[in-house]
Amino acid sequence: MYLPDHDVTLEPLTAEHADAVLAFERENRAYFAAWIEDRGDDFFTSFAERHQALLAEQETGTCRFHVLVDAVGAVVGRVNLMDLENGSAELGYRIAEKATGRGLASAAVRALARLAASEYGLTMLRAGTSDRNVASQAVLTRAGFRRVADPAAHLGFELKLEDL
Predict the structure, then answer these.
(1) Residue 19 contacts by C-beta under 8 Å, 6 or more apart in sequence?
(2) The whole model's pTM is what?
(3) Which of 67, 68, 72, 127 is the most buried (most CB within 10 A)?
(4) DSSP assignment of 88-127
């Protein structure tokens, strides 16, 4: 799915994305660690196996992983649906530091929400964010999510997909 205002495509994760995803994670490691727990060195040393495991998990239908790919083929974001069950899923995303502040995260979350409803048959998305990550809270709110009580997250959000 092409996001014209950002000149990126939202694509299902494939084996061909492995090198670009690894580059994305390496380039943005310190930036991501400022907001969420660092993935640790093992994530990077065993990345090939982890990537294959994600693809295998995706094949089962319990998760749907996506990447945002720019015009030169670089990954500038990840937008994922995890734990698909009973018409709902957990949404998570990461946007490259160089691509922030231009509405890409909001556009990607909205695009994936539409895809979740139309292609994956989902009716509800959940998301969580830390209480100090105001930017992520704003992204979710702009995409139509509403704040809810969620003991598993600092701040929980839900989006009923029929509200789109």
Answers:
(1) none
(2) 0.89
(3) 68
(4) EEEEEEEE-GGGTTSSHHHHHHHHHHHHHHHTS---EEEE
